[in-house]
Amino acid sequence: MLTQTPANEDYFFIPKARNSPIKQSFSLVQGLPEKLKIFRIAGSKYWQVRFFNHGKYIAKSLKTTEKREAELLAQHFYADLKMRGVVNERGVLPVLDEMSAYIENQRLLHDLIQEVLATEQERLCRDEITLGSFLMTKGRLEGLVFDFLKTCTLRQIKTETMEAFVSFLTEKKLAPPTIVGYIALMRKLLRLLLRKELIDKHPLFPKIKSPPNSRGAFTVTEYRAILRRAKTLRGVAFTNWGDGKRPWIKKKYQQMPESMNALIRFMVYTFVRPGDIRQLKNKHVEVVKGSFNYLRLTLPEVKRHKAPMVSLPSAVGIYERVLQRQKEQGFGLPDDYVFFPEERNRRLMLDIIGWLFNWILKELDLKQGPHGTERTLYSLRHTAITFRLIYGGNIDLLTLARNARTSVEMIEKFYASTLSAEMNIALLHGKR
């Protein structure tokens, strides 16, 4: 005689759809409203939580297979809903007016951000800021600034709110200079709130100390060692890629090029930035010979600076030899780039130069300075300015700053900050 299993076992209730809840898994969590339940679905091994609010479910995966842990995570989920204003402190659904106020607050925040961005867009059109600055402002306002303020009542912003904002940014592990930049954007929003009479006074911000981030100049001894190593590595292929790592450098650049030594010296004798090397063409360089021999570099605008730069005398010979080698290779026209003219992807070219320079630094164990500062290709510009401060006679900071396309304040803050009394001992011991 055949017997049949009664069709009331749990496995007969497993739904066909992967995202459908398993009815038998629904459970209440002690201390939480009945409209919040934890459950499981057919297509996942993890527990889920959902809360019924204003005719729809707010759901989330709890990423755990343990029911007890799921109950604890559900309590955190509910606490987060309360913090965001979805439910009030009594644990019941907020009235429609409260929810409307919450939504209206977010709309106001969105409109304020768009108004600030419209002002920045006008500054961009007037050429007061660069496109990069505008895009960075847009990303920050629509990113972390919005994420923080969306849970705040804009009409009730106080000094404590701004302190919490700085703590919020600190938890994101942002550097002090970056936090200072975010504070500047928050000030713009607050000034707009004040102008619209949505707040009574401008709240105070905590003070953030941003120590100078020197890019680590090289000493004369280190600089000479770098030049010597760039020469000895000429034609040598790099092989130390590490286990399981594939080289991203083009094969023709996997060995040290002959022009690397000239590029390093050119940067030190001309004060240029790595970004200048990327876009430097022969038409930007004029050789001047007379009472003084130098290169006049009329580079494209960078960081709001347009004035020509003047090189040291040694740069003339370096450029003439580079230009002669270019012509031997079929380049050397006004629109040809001075360094690596065969590489049309100039952003990639800059990455390649940076990688080659790091290769030299690691060979000499000079990647980090004596105080742990990371050295990069930009350190050559730092070295150029520092050498002028030490060995440039009675050169004044204004002349040096204008020629290097920077400001006196930047030189004092970042470049002169690494100087010591011993470096200028001749001036210190000098007599009238």
TrEMBL record:
Keywords: DNA recombination, DNA-binding
Segments forming domain Tyr recombinase: 237-429
Protein name: Tyr recombinase domain-containing protein
Protein source organism: Limnohabitans curvus
InterPro entries to which the protein is assigned, alphabetical: DNA_brk_join_enz, Integrase-like_cat_sf, Integrase_catalytic, Integrase_recombinase_N, SAM-like_dom
Domain of life: Bacteria
GO MF assignments: DNA binding
Any one of the GO BP annotations: DNA integration
Family annotation (Pfam families): Phage_int_SAM_5
Transmembrane segments: none
